[in-house]
Design goal:
2 copies of one chain form a homodimer. The first copy, chain A, has a domain at 6-148 and 216-231: Rossmann fold, CATH 3.40.50.300. The first copy, chain A, is built from 8 helices and 8 strands. Chain A has helices at residues 17-31, 46-57, 74-81, 99-115, 160-163, 165-170, 189-199, 216-231, and strands at 6-8, 34-40, 63-69, 86-90, 126-130, 147-153, 173-177, 204-207. In chain A, helix 3 links the parallel strand 3 (63-69) and strand 4 (86-90). The longest helix of chain A is centred in the middle third of the chain and has 17 residues, at 99-115.
Chain lengths: 232, 232
């Protein structure tokens, strides 16, 4: 069994993260890699959603995942075991990634891919950064991603967009997960959508259950389309 | 209807938060106020748990809540509407509170209490600080509290103690909430307890459903007992 490689990220010394993020975005555009920054609260189902998407990505696009975590490597191992190229990034206690930390992760990912390179596996069309589970800090740092994606799980409640507005302002894409639990929780879709769209009228919203697979195919198709647009 | 007072917190300029927190803790001990710092992910049920506890606190102890939030005042209003003295603290985007910010909140709370003071309501035995919903940053700052309490809700998953270890190291008390949803989610209590107790052998663990009320009386009794011990 292949063990997940763990990279200890160094804290960025650059002062202008926004500028650095734009440089990284331009580099990725040049390399034809669509980077998606995936953010959410702890336990919203980021890794489970990626596993569910893999069923629809297989054979259609070449993709990989950088799993950021404070101090464990379970997520990268999970993705590797599912056959998805993955590295684990440790932030050493930090609550977010900035563009320079993301760049360190991308280099590690590229060397991981190069090591197992053959004609099928060389290069990536789509690269996910699974950010630290946190609705506050990651929203404040541009990582250089082409798209910001956030997950809100039904059990967290419909009031999260009102309470953590910046996350919903910076995201391009909102995935409402665990809709299989809608019957158990009091979750007002209309209220939630109203709160989101007031702050971000362009937000694209998907409803899925990563557990049962409901809605995942539609989300996967959208992400493949966005990847192709970016890499065109 | 009484509207919740909103206090915009100023960022602390003190360099030694640990020292400042100890000063605040000593002041609160002197004043006979037991401060509990309540932390969790967004949507774990901090406010709902406080509402459920209120049913058992009523008539037994004098208590109040400081509701910290990035930018809304729904929680303080909810507590006020339930008859619990409460103020809303805005962190202006910050992901945590330190001791100095907590002190600003306590002053606001004291002036709120003084305004409506009569023989029944003067003074507080127990004061909750509902921290920003975040498993990372609040764990890094001592607020001067007598007790750190954290909530883990069942839908978040049993792997949170492994992924956010510091939170479970600094907490004295872990409340596992939404146990009414145990049938819907794959949550391994033994794994979770093992991961918690490895890091923190003294952790006191309660299982509750703030929604159905299960387990809440036992938790309330424990908190009343701790409050009396602190204020003795």
């Amino acid at each position: 069994m292949e063990l997940a490689k763990v990279i200890e990220l160094k804290e960025s010394i650059l002062e202008n993260n926004d500028q650095d993020a734009q440089v990284l975005r331009d580099e990725l555009k040049e390399k034809k890699i669509c980077l998606i920054n995936l953010m959410s609260s702890p336990g919203s189902g980021k890794t489970t959603t990626l596993l569910a998407l893999n069923e629809y990505f297989k054979g259609k696009i070449r993709w990989g995942v950088m799993e950021a975590d404070i101090d464990s490597s379970v997520d990268a191992q999970t993705m590797l075991d599912a056959g998805v190229p993955s590295v684990q990034l440790h932030t050493g206690g930090m609550c977010h990634l900035d563009a320079d930390m993301t760049r360190q992760g991308i280099r590690a990912m590229e060397s991981h891919i190069a090591e197992k390179s053959d004609s099928e596996k060389s290069g990536l069309d789509l690269l996910f950064l699974e950010n630290i589970g946190n609705l506050v800090c990651p929203a404040e740092f541009d990582t250089g991603a082409a798209l910001n994606m956030t997950i809100l799980s039904v059990p967290e409640g419909d009031d999260k967009p009102a309470k953590y507005p910046l996350m919903y302002e910076v995201a391009d894409l909102l995935v409402v997960n665990k809709i299989d639990a809608l019957a158990v929780f009091d979750f007002d879709k209309e209220r939630m959508e109203r709160d989101v769209l007031t702050r971000n009228p362009d937000m694209k919203i998907f409803y899925i259950s990563a557990l049962t697979g409901e809605g995942v195919e539609e989300l996967a198709s959208y992400l493949i389309e966005k990847t192709k647009e970016w890499n065109a």
